[in-house]
Specification:
By secondary structure, this protein is α+β, with helices and mostly antiparallel strands. The protein has helices at residues 10-19, 35-41, 66-72, 79-90, 170-180, 195-202, 211-219, 301-315, 345-353, 374-384, 387-390, 448-452, 467-483, 488-494, 500-512; strands at 23-26, 45-48, 58-60, 96-97, 106-109, 131-132, 135-141, 145-150, 153-157, 160-162, 185-191, 224-227, 234-236, 241-247, 254-256, 270-272, 274-282, 288-290, 320-325, 334-339, 361-366, 391-398, 416-424, 516-518, 524-526. It folds into three domains: 3-290, Pnp Oxidase, Chain A (Roll), CATH 2.30.110.10; 301-429, UbiD C-terminal domain-like, CATH 3.40.1670; 461-526, Arc Repressor Mutant, subunit A (Orthogonal Bundle). The strands form six sheets. Strands 5, 6, 7, 8, 9, 10, 11, 14 and 17 form a nine-stranded antiparallel beta sheet that branches. α4 packs across α7 and α13 packs across α15. The radius of gyration is 26 Å and the shape is globular. It starts with 9 loop residues before the first helix and ends in a 15-residue tail after the last strand. The relative contact order is 0.13.
């Protein structure tokens, strides 16, 4: 690790990004509803200094490129990042406790806890609500010790969120054990931390291994811990904001999401526990960090394969969109084919294409996949394939003698080998809404180039903390969703004459009154309506 970065904090990294022209300061007023799409369009990280309705700036996109990821780890090239992580795993450095922490300059406890004061942006069109995305969560289990990780928290009320722990992992295990014991599971949530700690928390370590010790190994210095104000649990001393909270023993029974996932798809509605926030500690000039979701001799041989494959597919009655005989397959053995699919034709296309010359491996994809984009093809395999259903292996097929993976055969003997087909099309019976790609609201009107040139958003009507206005707005929202469920983002846009915070408070009021729920697609609806999603029958599922 480069020594000059081993003691760098979150703000130091932002300053370094700024110096490298990898961070752009947006100083004019910006509506929080526009942040996600602006970050999506930007070639750099963005720091929004004036977020309408909030007293706190928002930074996002700080590790949202190959170049910024390299910078964050103090590396010279991308492969070196893996070596840095291995260094942390092989030579962990235990955290050290400090007496003071800058995030304790302002402390809110009990009724003063108000998540709506934090500029927590929406992300994609289909989101179930504002999500805390960059919190490093620390929990302690009586038997297994400390665990750190990053999890999403959907804001439901001023002091209530969910936590997305549907995937089996150590944090879910801790929460499950607490649930079975009938007790809450205390957690600290540190927001605004250096990527060293983010990387460490993202590594799924075995039970009993402290991820922050791995982060210390990556950094080359101990991560500094401070103790929470309301619980016997550490948090990151250098954080901008810390939430002290408890995962309530409600079981996996509350609707959570939807939210854009790392798959580049919208996740489904999840069932998760509730989290009550007991305290918020922060710097006087805190910066809110929103982690943004999501986010390459054959030239003459290849054309002969194109012709043979196209002929075979035409004979099978397959409508072909594109064919790519890849250079990675040496222009001989690998083909990616996109088709305009009808039922069952994924497998038919595979069988037909595998008969063409010496083709060895074929991937068939839907016509929404770019066969010339390796990442797009791999993504289709990752999100649309089940191995026992969609991989076809044809043994004993004629093979090309130059294939070095084949066993040695006597001279004159034609070698045989296996052909493999992967049907990476959307399977029959799979709901199409599972493949709704992430799309950002306001992309047609909130353009980063305009803001760089000085565009400022008009300030909507401010409701502040006026309970009467909040109640009136809540009533209007209730009337809107009574006839038809609406995505949270749709509601926010429908009432765009109000500041987003006013809409969020009104939604929180409806939730607190027990009137708000979500349908199976994650849209807001009335709790007892015919649209309302129903929880699973088991409390801890």
């Amino acid at each position: 690790m480069k020594a000059r970065y081993s003691e760098e904090n979150f703000r130091g990294f932002l300053e370094r990004l700024r110096g490298e022209k990898e961070l752009l300061d947006i100083k004019q007023p910006v509506d929080i509803r526009h942040i996600a799409t602006l970050v999506d369009q930007s070639k750099t990280a963005l720091l929004f200094h004036d977020v309408i309705g909030y007293d706190m700036p928002v930074v996002s996109g700080i590790i949202r490129s190959r170049e910024r990821a390299i910078l964050s780890m103090g590396c010279d090239d991308y492969p070196e990042i893996e070596h840095r992580l291995q260094q942390g795993i092989d030579k962990p450095v235990p955290p050290k406790f400090v007496e003071t922490a800058k995030h304790k300059q302002v402390i809110a406890l009990g009724d003063d806890v108000d998540l709506y004061r934090l500029p927590i942006p929406m992300s994609s069109i289909y989101d179930g609500g504002p999500m805390i995305t960059a919190g490093i969560v620390i929990a302690r289990d009586p038997e297994y010790g400390i665990n750190s990780g990053m999890y999403r928290f959907m804001v439901k009320e001023k002091n209530l969120t969910g936590i997305d722990i549907v995937t089996p992992n150590n944090m879910r295990l801790f929460a499950q054990r607490a649930y079975e014991a009938g007790r809450p599971c205390p957690i600290s949530i540190s927001i605004g931390t250096h990527p060293f700690e983010i990387m460490g928390s993202g590594f799924r370590a075995p039970l009993g291994v402290d991820e922050m010790a791995i982060a210390g190994g990556i950094r080359g210095e101990p991560v500094e811990f401070a103790m929470c104000e309301t619980m016997d649990l550490p948090c990151l001393a250098d954080a901008e904001i810390v939430l002290e909270a408890e995962i309530l023993p409600t079981g996996w029974t509350q609707p959570e999401g939807r939210f854009g996932e790392f798959t580049r798809l919208m996740g489904g509605l999840h069932w998760n526990p509730l989290v009550k926030v007991k305290a918020i500690t922060l710097r006087r000039d805190a910066i809110y960090y929103a982690l943004h979701m999501p986010w390459e001799n054959t030239w003459l041989a290849a054309p002969t394969r194109y012709t043979a494959i196209r002929r075979a597919l035409r004979s099978a009655g397959i409508q072909v969109k594109d064919i790519n005989v890849t250079l990675g397959g040496c222009g001989f053995w690998h083909a990616v084919v996109s088709i305009r699919k009808q039922a069952g034709e994924g497998k038919n296309a595979l069988l037909a294409a595998l008969t063409a010359q010496d083709i060895k491996h074929v991937v068939v994809v839907d016509d929404d996949i770019d066969v010339f984009n390796a990442m797009d093809v791999e993504w289709a395999i990752a999100t649309r394939v089940q191995g026992d259903r969609d991989i076809i292996i044809v043994p004993g097929a004629r093979a090309k003698p130059l294939d070095p993976s084949l066993a040695v055969t006597p001279p004159g003997v034609v070698p045989t080998g296996a052909k493999v087909g992967i049907d990476a099309t959307i399977g029959e019976g799979i709901p199409r809404e599972r493949f709704e790609r992430i799309a950002y609201a306001y992309a047609d009107r909130a353009r980063i180039d305009d803001y760089v040139k000085g565009k400022a958003d008009a300030s909507p009507k401010a409701a502040g903390h006026d309970d009467k206005l909040t109640a009136q707005l809540a009533g209007k929202i209730l009337a809107l969703i009574e006839a038809e469920p609406r995505y949270y983002q749709e509601i926010a846009e429908h009432f765009g004459e109000h500041e987003f915070q006013a809409v969020a408070r009104a939604m929180g009021r409806l939730h607190a009154e027990g009137k708000l729920w979500q349908d199976a697609r994650g849209r807001a609806c009335i709790r007892d309506s015919a649209f309302a999603a129903r929880p699973p029958t088991t409390g801890a599922g």
